[in-house]
Amino acid sequence: MTAQHLGSDRNTTDWWRQAVVYQVYPRSFADADGDGIGDLPGVTSRLPYLAGLGVDAVWLSPFYPSQLADGGYDVDDYRDVDPRLGTLDDFDAMVAEAHRLGLKVMVDIVPNHSSDQHLWFQEALRAEPGSAARERYVFREGKGERGELPPTDWVSCFGGPAWTRLPDGWWYLHLFAPEQPDFNWDNPEVRADFRHTLRFWSDRGVDGFRVDVAHGLAKDLAAPLRDIGTVEGYTPADLPEDGSHPFWDRDEVHDIFRDWRKVFNEYDPPRVAVAEAWVRSSRRTAYATPQELGQAFNFDFLKAALHAGELRAAIDTALADARAAGATATWVLSNHDVIRHASRYGLPDGRDEEAWLLSDGQEPVLDREFGLRRALAATLLMLALPGSGYVYQGEELGLPEVAGLSRDSLQDPVWTRSGGRLKGRDGCRVPLPWRREGSSYGFGSGGTWLPQPAGWGELSVEAQQGVASAPLELYRTALATRRRLLADEALEWADDVPTAHPDVLHFCRSGGWECVTNLSGEPRPLPPGELLLASAPVTGDALPPWTTVWLRTAQA
Predict the structure, then answer these.
(1) Can you say whether residue 184 is alpha, beta or left, with left for phi > 0 and alpha for psi between -120 and 50 degrees?
(2) How far is it, in rounded angstroms, from Cα 548 to Cα 543?
(3) Which of 149, 278, 322, 392 could make an S-S bridge to 334, C-beta 3.0–4.6 Å?
(4) 3-state secondary structure 53-73
């Protein structure tokens, strides 16, 4: 057996080390005023549900004033609430209720870019080239005889050029939509303003932050700007290991987060943050150190196929990286940017997910029962691992991706910016069903900003409440059991047991409990021990296909 040992203290200061964090996409969670858009009072009204589910913290995607060019990630004002979602008083009430219920609160912060309606960018548009107002963003003259060509060949993550030309002939940088101009983080005013924002929300009781595009802030803006060879999209493996890319994962970004850590440590307990950093695993460690953010998302686990060897490699790498950083690993299977894992796992291995979305989920036809079975097995595996689990709203209901959204209902800029080559992320953002019936299945008294599919109510909280075989009750039981079982952060692989098999993952946690996952279509021997929890029915001494069990060992 081999062991991985991490820190073990779960006191108030280190609440995040083995926490389960529930991600709320506010516009799609609960609508209190019936306008079809989820809001902060709606979130507050459902906090008892989340406390009863058994999570430790709530993470809110952006709720700031926004033109919604990118689902709220185009921020007009970093220190206010979008009037469609509520007020600052509503936010304070939500935090107070969360804390009363024993829940921590994390919020999204979007430091790479603002909205083009942000006060600063509007000032920059009115200002002269070379002015102080323009220095807060990235403005450059174009190439060509009359400056008619973009300054570089950089492309937007949403498709198309990463530069937009203004009437005065100058261009501004946006690594995402044109409505999201990139900040110039070499500018001291930008750095000071974000310190102000971190303190603003921390003073209101926020316990932590999820940092959007954490790897994109620092850029090499020395003249002349470097071309990179136009590439539509990238993977972490495409990035250089030495931090020399012009705008992704540059070494200088860590100066910014070391500065943020000083702000976090002004509070008791210190505020924590988690980096969204799509970088090589060898480069992710730096973001998660105690001197910087504290955690970084591990997307290798999310992207791994449900193969024992691939998952084990992702687990071992994440645990080793977290140990090296003095942090804990993070585990996530779904979020607001990816196809829900109950659907991903129902598609054939090696599938083209984008082609499936563009076929409105018809080619191939999704095996929903198979996908849900595999998703629940993966979830129990995830929740047994040392570190923090991040759960996306609705996954506890086993919600599938809504792949059949009509083209005229799509709102993700990915759809238009890609010229229809990518359908986008709307399918995982459809408002939640809370009740079996009603105009929006309990989401609110009116309609919904994205259409809910027929039959959505049969997947609702009301429909699953108290049904022992429902995903909701499995999540509740798993989270309660996990809370009782957790001790330190050690994991030990059980490679030398008689029931070992190459398509079975089997590891032990301190306190005498084990997790065993059968990642095959055939039954495998069930190790001895008291059955605590199973993702699917278990009878006799066989571990069924695509099933995870938690066991208490006989010697415990």
Answers:
(1) beta
(2) 8
(3) 392
(4) HCCCEEEECCCCCECCCCCCC
DSSP-derived letter for residue 538 is: -
d(C-alpha 3, C-alpha 131), whole Å: 57
Residue whose C-alpha is closest to residue 299's, from 341, 261, 271, 247: 341
> What burial class does residue 356 get, using C-beta atoms within 10 Å of its C-beta: 0-12 exposed, 13-18 middle, 19+ buried?
buried
Of 76, 212, 292, 426, the active-site residue reads 212
Distance (Å, whole) CA 517 – CA 551: 11
- For 111-129, b/e burial (b = at least 16 CB within 10 A) is bbbbbbbbebbeebbeeee
Q: Tokens 């930008």 map to which residue? A: 190
Q: Which of 290, 30, 81, 47 shows the shortest CA–CA distance to 204?
A: 81
Given 89, 266, 352, 495, which residue is catalytic?
266
Can you tell me whether residue 298 is helix, strand or coil?
Answer: coil
Q: How many helices (H) and strands (E) does the chain have?
A: 14, 19
Rounded (10°) angle between helices 40-53 and 88-100 = 10
Active site residue 212: yes
Q: Residues 458, 461, 462, 463: what is their CA dihedral angle, to the nearest 10 degrees?
A: 30
